Amino acid sequence: MIRILITGGTGFLGKKLTKQLKDLPDTKVVSVGSRDCDLLSIDATYQLVLSTSPNIIIHLAAKVGGIGANQASPTEFLRDNLTMGLNILNEAHHTPDLKQFLLIGSICSYPKFTPVPFMEENLWNGYPEETNAPYGIAKKTLIVLGKSMKTQYNFPFTCLMPVNMYGPGDNFNPDTSHVIPAMIKKIIEAKRLNEFSVTMWGTGNATREFLYVEDAAKGIASYLDVDWPDPVNLGTGKEISIKELAELIAEIVGFNGSIIWDTTKPDGQPRRCLDTSKLRTLTGFEAGTSLKEGLERTINWYKGTL
């Protein structure tokens, strides 16, 4: 029996990953969220790992949010993510039957002006984009710690670096949501109210890559038992401008008004698009859901919650 512990297992990605892994034969999956265990507490983290005695730990738990949330609480984004990671890594190190520790990192750790497509070796070549640097640096520090533990203690550290995820069940709270749910909410509301325009942050010129959440779960599942100490990208390898994204969502929703860009608000990183060849070589994984198909599913799900 393989015992898998997923921190952040009750969250957006965690729920999909838990469902994916529970279908594996001879496998017991324990998924915990913040209500089950406070990973900011050393004692609580110790009790969690002791009681589950995992063979594999997938560390998904994180304090996350969009540009606005990162700008409002940079201290918490760095401190809390670093503390949770330090606590779980420390307890994992003392787990006798551990075969793999899989850290879910972040594309936010890449330097602001990383050449596109982002290659894993470029991760260390500069400072992250300022609006989410504290979050990105917390994740980056945990990578350095995990690799150090691998070198010094032969600790079974691995890391995947996913791009922005989206899909049914995403966070649509306007104070903390990422770009896709924020846009969907604004555009659906504008259509409902018969408004002539909707306002979005930035210039619309920045580009992003988006990964459907169920594809992300499949990508993570494909990485179990891989022994590779360096971070590996997880994404689609396809980018779209924020302007084109807004227009695509408006088309799917059926909103015919104007999209106005508030250039006083930040764009964030100028471009984001991953080179995903390393993961394809290691596991054969490729994302299978097109952006339009994933957006249609997400929009339909959100409409069903209204």
Averaged pLDDT, please? Answer: 94
The CATH class is identified as Alpha Beta
For the largest beta-sheet, the strand count, sense and barrel status come to:
6 strands, parallel
Q: Unreliable segments (pLDDT under 50, ≥5 consecutive)?
A: none
Kindly provide the radius of gyration, computed on alpha-carbon positions and rounded to a whole number of angstroms. 19 Å
Instruction: Fill in the CATH topology.
Output: Rossmann fold
CATH architecture: 3-Layer(aba) Sandwich
CATH superfamily: NAD(P)-binding Rossmann-like Domain
Tally of separate helices: 10
**Which strand order does the major sheet show?**
2-1-3-4-5-10
What does the model show?
The protein has 10 helices and 12 strands. It has a single domain (2-168, 209-238, 272-289), classed as Rossmann fold (3-Layer(aba) Sandwich). With 306 residues, the chain is an alpha/beta fold. Helix 1 (12-22) links the parallel strand 1 and strand 2. Helix 2 (42-52) crosses helix 4. The radius of gyration is 19 Å and the shape is globular. The N and C termini lie far apart (42 Å).
Provide a brief overview of the structure.
The protein is α/β, with parallel strands linked by helices. Helices cover 42% and strands 17% of the residues. Strand 1 (2-7), helix 1 and strand 2 (27-32) form a beta-alpha-beta unit.
Write out key terms for the chains shown.
Rossmann fold, 42% helix, alpha/beta, 306 residues, 12 strands
Topology of this structure?
Layout: E1 2-7, H1 12-22, E2 27-32, H2 42-52, E3 56-59, H3 67-72, H4 74-93, E4 100-104, H5 133-153, E5 157-162, E6 164-166, H6 179-192, E7 197-201, E8 207-208, E9 210-212, H7 213-222, E10 231-234, E11 240-241, H8 242-253, E12 258-262, H9 277-283, H10 291-305
Parallel strand pairs: 1-2, 1-3, 3-4, 4-5, 5-10, 6-9, 7-12
Antiparallel strand pairs: 8-11
